Amino acid sequence: MRTTIFFTPVITPILRWLAIVILYVTGWKARGEELAHQRCVLIGAPHTSNWDFPLMLLVVLKLRLRVFWMGKHTLFPFPFAGIMKWLGGIPIDRSRSHNVVNETVRQYREHDELIVLIPPEGTRSKVDRWKTGFYHIANLAQVPILLGYVDASNKEAGIADFFAPTGELDKDMQEIRAFYAPKKGLRAENS
């Protein structure tokens, strides 16, 4: 995979140290452990604010994760596209008919280690139903889903448990959503 902020020699260790300092100064706690094998679909919720992105960068740097994240293509305008991709971004044009799930599964087959972060809500607004692309990617690629979260009420963000998809979408989604039910986003009204 390409070089990103999460694995750029010399720069990444400096940014990791800076992330630890910023989290400490702002009172946020990064929860979770460094992963021995970095191969999973990472979901992040609740996604309620533009501030989720810098918070995610800080936590991912501290936990030494090497993450790619999916974002709508409008986040990658010229001349900022290169920077957004260096930050781990993968532009997704949701207006076109394409098969993001199959392409992402192919990437998992071609790489021994790969973490793709997907916000299942698909927006910062309050939603009743999550998008299920992350689930289909994990199920088809036969990789676990790592539950990443923001909980502003406790001023913590991080990674919790792995969830192994069973192929029973509705049942599995209920279990995953139950984990996130008590979590409050940075904008609680959108959680």
Please explain how this structure is put together.
By secondary structure, the protein is of the alpha/beta class. It has one domain. It has 6 helices and 7 strands. A 7-stranded mixed sheet has the order 1-7-6-2-5-3-4, with helices on both faces. α4 packs parallel to α5. The protein is globular. The mean pLDDT is 90.
Number of domains: 1
- Main sheet: strands, sense, barrel: 7 strands, mixed
Order of helices and strands: HEEHEHEHEHEEH
Tell the overall outline: globular
* Radius of gyration computed on alpha carbons: 16 Å
Mean pLDDT: 90
In terms of DSSP E residues, the strand content is 15-25%
Q: Which structural class should the secondary elements be placed in? A: alpha/beta
Count of DSSP strands: 7
Biggest sheet strand order reads 1-7-6-2-5-3-4
* Uncertain spans: none
How far do the termini sit from each other?
A: 33 Å
Helix content: 25-40%
Task: Produce the secondary structure layout.
Layout: H1 11-26, E1 29-31, E2 39-45, H2 52-62, E3 67-72, H3 81-86, E4 89-92, H4 100-110, E5 114-118, H5 133-141, E6 145-151, E7 156-163, H6 169-180
Parallel strand pairs: 1-7, 2-5, 2-6, 3-4, 3-5
Antiparallel strand pairs: 6-7
Helix pairs in contact: 1-2, 4-5
